[in-house]
Specification:
alpha+beta, globular, 2 domains, single chain, Ubiquitin-like (UB roll), 6 helices, two-stranded antiparallel sheet, five-stranded mixed β-sheet, 237 residues, 24% helix
Length: 237
């Protein structure tokens, strides 16, 4: 067994476990897009980043691919992590602004707009469909093609695959196939209909980590020492 600390809580996990699995065991929420139970970890969406090590030499890693190490210090909701996740969500919104899944994640993390040019690519290259087709359906009917900005997913030479059984598994696991809004303006890229609150504790300079991990956040009011006198005055009145 390997012992590590996640948000100050010591946990023992089996050798070969990932940080994501260890965090889920303790109940710490880590958002994911490309990860799916039963499929090989891929680490493409970068949304599951966590901070490991101690400052000032800490670094961000993808929790779904990083294996637990003896004595490792992990923070799943530091200010640096939350800032990185918001930026990543903005980038995903720019690629697929109509995805209900991405919009819900953005709303839950306090992202109300995205500052990048909307591309409407309808694919974030998370590789879920490719891994599902290969690992679960044992078909390998689709795969990645090209590199860099020309990278895409499809069949070889865009021809109908002889191994595809039209099972629909690729669409079932796709996080962007379920559409919602049709806004074309960047400032309206997030629906916001869920009304989830962002972590107000991280907005206060004295807190560098979340104070709770409720989903959605209850946006609790954190009283400061200077507020104690005000509370006493209210009670006396």
């Amino acid at each position: 067994m390997i012992k590590l600390k996640i948000n100050g809580v010591e946990v023992s996990v089996e050798k070969g476990s990932t940080i994501l699995e260890a965090a889920q065991f303790l109940g710490f929420p880590i958002p994911t897009l490309c990860h799916m139970e039963g499929l090989t970890p891929y680490g493409a969406c970068r949304l599951c980043v966590v901070e490991i090590g101690e400052e000032p030499r800490s670094k961000l890693v993808t929790s779904c691919t990083y294996l637990a190490e003896e004595g490792l210090q992990v923070r799943t909701a530091s200010r640096r992590v939350i800032r990185a996740r918001k930026m990543i969500l903005e980038l995903h919104l720019a690629s697929c602004p109509q995805s209900k899944t991405i919009q819900d994640l953005a709303s839950a993390h306090g992202v109300t707009q995205q500052r990048f040019k909307q591309e409407y690519e309808n694919c974030i290259l998370c590789g879920r469909c490719v891994r599902m087709c290969e690992e679960q359906m044992v078909a390998k009917a689709i795969g990645f093609r090209g590199r860099g900005e020309n990278r895409s997913i499809g069949t070889p030479f865009d021809e109908k695959s002889d191994t595809c059984r039209l099972c629909g598994g690729c669409m079932y696991v796709c996080p962007v196939c379920e559409l919602r809004c049709t806004y074309t303006e960047p400032e309206k890229a997030v629906c916001g209909g869920c009304g989830n609150h962002s972590a107000v504790c991280l907005e206060k300079p004295e807190f560098n980590d979340m104070m709770c991990y409720m989903d959605p956040c209850v946006a609790c009011e954190i009283k400061q020492p200077k507020d104690i006198k005000d509370i006493k005055d209210i009670k006396e009145d």
